[in-house]
Amino acid sequence: MKIISVWSRKGGTGKTTISYMLAGAAVDRGLKVLLIDDDNQASGVWLSEFNNVPFEVVKGWPEHQPNVDLVIVDMPPRTDDKPLGTVIIPYQATPLDFGATARYIPELRKTNKVIEVINRRRNIAIQNEFIKGISLDKRMIINERSIYQTVTANGRNIFDPELKNKYGIREAKQEITNLLNEALA
Ligand SMILES: Nc1ncnc2c1ncn2[C@@H]1O[C@H](COP(=O)(O)OP(=O)(O)O)[C@@H](O)[C@H]1O
Ligand SMILES: [Mg+2]
Questions:
Q1: Is the CB of 149 under 6 A from ligand 1?
Q2: Which of 4, 22, 62, 108 has the highest CB neighbour number within 10 Å of its CB?
Q3: Is the Cβ atom of 119 under 6 angstroms away from ligand 1?
């Protein structure tokens, strides 16, 4: 059983969105997935109530080890709980957003595989400047796309077959697929 934790010290960085899309991508390739919503806000559990979700979502860690191929943990922003497995850290490409998270990363890298994700990437000066100054070797990019907002509005994810002709979906699936490949590698 593999574990992917989506972690960040900040709220609103895309943890729930990325957790949901990764879970959808993993189901799409035939894996049995459990999403653990560890955040008190419980957006993940709330989304699953739309019944459009092809994986199980539970609040908090179950008592017994779940019988699945992949566990994805949507972590709360302020916690001392150590993320398990491969850790995905989303942040926006601005000094302020990065600064809030950056200092925790070296310590985590000692014990976990860490993938930094520049989320909500837009082609604007502040982000272009920031990205010029960092290495993209160990970082992946998820662009700002309205499709990520529209699909989650009713608990769907971009791998839902009913959505296959929606604007931007092909590109979104590609970037989430790349992230899942990297996380499972
Ligand atoms: N790549 C993206 N493109 C567009 N909107 C995004 C993207 N990632 C996240 N969002 C939006 O940002 C907001 C916060 O995302 P969310 O996943 O709830 O963050 P968190 O779980 O870290 O609090 C939501 O409105 C979500 O739709
Ligand atoms: Mg969340």
A1: yes
A2: 4
A3: yes
Residue 23 predicted with pLDDT over 80: yes
Structural domain total, the chain: 1
Instruction: Tell whether ligand 1 has an atom less than 6 A from the beta carbon of residue 46.
Output: no
**Max intra-chain CA distance, the chain:** 48
Domain boundaries, position 47:
2-184
Give the atom of ligand 1 at the shortest distance from the alpha carbon of 120: 1
The burial class, CB within 10 Å (0-12 / 13-18 / 19+), for 5 is buried
Percent of the chain having pLDDT more than 70?
A: 100
**pLDDT tens, position by position, 143-176:** 999 999 999 888 899 999 888 889 999 999 999 9
Residue 24: give its domain's CATH number.
Answer: 3.40.50.300
Dist. CA 115–CA 97, nearest whole Å: 16
